[in-house]
Predict the 3D structure of the following.
Amino acid sequence: MTDTAPRPTLEAVAERAGVSRATVSRVVNGAHGVRDALADRVRRAVEELGYVPNQAARSLVTRRHDAVAVVAAEPETRVFADPYFAQQLRGISKELTAHDNQLVLLLTEGREDHARVGRYLAGGHVDGALVFSLHLDDPLPGLVRGAGVPTVFGGRPGWDDGRDDVVYVDSDNRGGARAAVRHLTGLGRTRIAHITGPLDQTSAADRLAGFRDVRADADAGLVARGDFTSGGGERAMRELLDRYPDLDAVFAANDLTAAGALRVLRERGRRVPDDVAVVGFDDMLPVAEETDPPLTTVRQDIEGMGRLMARLLLRGLDRDTAPEPTTGVSAGAPSGVILPTTLVRRASA
Amino acid sequence: MTDTAPRPTLEAVAERAGVSRATVSRVVNGAHGVRDALADRVRRAVEELGYVPNQAARSLVTRRHDAVAVVAAEPETRVFADPYFAQQLRGISKELTAHDNQLVLLLTEGREDHARVGRYLAGGHVDGALVFSLHLDDPLPGLVRGAGVPTVFGGRPGWDDGRDDVVYVDSDNRGGARAAVRHLTGLGRTRIAHITGPLDQTSAADRLAGFRDVRADADAGLVARGDFTSGGGERAMRELLDRYPDLDAVFAANDLTAAGALRVLRERGRRVPDDVAVVGFDDMLPVAEETDPPLTTVRQDIEGMGRLMARLLLRGLDRDTAPEPTTGVSAGAPSGVILPTTLVRRASA
DNA sequence: CGCGGCACAGAGAGCGCTCTCGGCGCGGAA
DNA sequence: TTCCGCGCCGAGAGCGCTCTCTGTGCCGCG
């Protein structure tokens, strides 16, 4: 039952159409230099036999796979909120399928997984890789680089040190943070605190930098360390209130953190936004709308990020097959692309 | 830069080890019937050259790909809450990598995508497929069936009509719903309402069935239709309160719905759980813990579901390569596997 | 009328691997 | 010693495709 009839080969199609394998191949692919009459006959034969090219045979000779790997460290995507990763995946998927590429998903979970991924990428099973690298000391980027596979990173890699051949897509964490804090100052708030994310992640570090851009003169004590979870947000909020009972605004590094902060504020009898205004980050959808009050936050185009990553990768792959004559890398190759963020005003600030 | 040195072939390894291709192949795979001395020489050569088998060449002859497709309808995974799908993916990924299989992700979004997926599966690029089919009238299952690819479904397919060769994994929606409602009756609640999900999804239908199992005598008016979103939960909750101002418990078809219901209850001045007890479903993690009060809900082992799906598929594939002599399908083949659910008690009921 | 050129089609090699089959050497039985 | 059997290894075909190279027919031009 599982075994279907043997799939028709090029040969079979050729025979049915009364032409040679080569001609069928020409038609099935680009189809240049084949008379219409013949081409039609071939197409009809393809249709009748239900011919589908054998990808294995094809890539054996072309060395192309029309497949790209998406590599993500599993525990991190978990902490970082799953919807985030899923949305990126969606964007990637759309772009890839639009270009007839397959998406091979590699989720890693530990040292041994890294080795496995390295081997897989080096094995030349895919034409390129999209890698999500969040931590400063992530071993993945090095691995991928070692595998010699064209790669686009999701999120600014921590080791963005001089080498400009690393391509990545990120959203404007720093700019978004600035916008959030400016929004708070615009509301007349003067005692503005920040709850960070885990600072070994570039997104968290960049958001902190954005906060500092606007509040360069803020007390160091107004910055409390969180970890992108609501529990961390609660802890940090308690600390902050203990230190600064008079604070009137909080910028949380993400929405989960903000949700935790909101709970503590309510518990301590602070009204939001009247007493304390709160801004989050991510616009993580189930959460940001469900909090009480709904969260003012910074939205990023997550799906767009994914799509852009895929697009950049595919473009790079194209260039490889048809290298332009200009010397070396095209002038001013965009090594990092930063997507804009927007402030979403809800009730919390 | 992108192009690395040409990858070593079996031939190269053979030459270096001073043996034939066949021997290297034997060692690289099962390694039976090769003297240890020779095998060691081969392994050393593999190591030194950094040889990795060319999967395309291999599957060209073996007709195996060590890859399975995961097919999901994109808009639905969105509505159904993204973390859900991501967790399943994680379970699938773990199981697949444990068996050296790759995960090819196919997200569909419309009619034309269905055709594309059908072609892909029929094209014999993968050894099997894991398909998430939520809707009663989902065209995907039919397509997959037509493609003649071994398949395991995620969630009970709507058309579970007699044919017992369809393999699926689902969690015990009906039993979980029963447990939730019994919990409410155990609390002494007597006026228990239910907000359903979209009833063209089997999970929603099964949860409703579970509600009815326990409250067979409940007024029809105590069942309000929702859509798995918090907005739907709000609307349904308003209806219910209008119809039954005296209701003292609500079983919501999922956590998002429950979150919406909670908002309306608060807005109408009902205390939870004192006046009205609320139970959700899913234990969708960011949400269920963030609501006020935190949600009592029914947890399913989502990751386990994914893992089980993959395991069942791989087992089926194994059988194909090494068919057991027993007649036909193994007696009592588990066509549907139902995973247990557990009630998680928090503050809302 | 003959030749070069062009547009198209076919023959055939070869991508890197697996796997069958045959050969070879060695040990034990006759 | 001869022969068979067995364990191990190599030769070689072939998986389904692409792509180059060659061949063929036809046109235009001299």
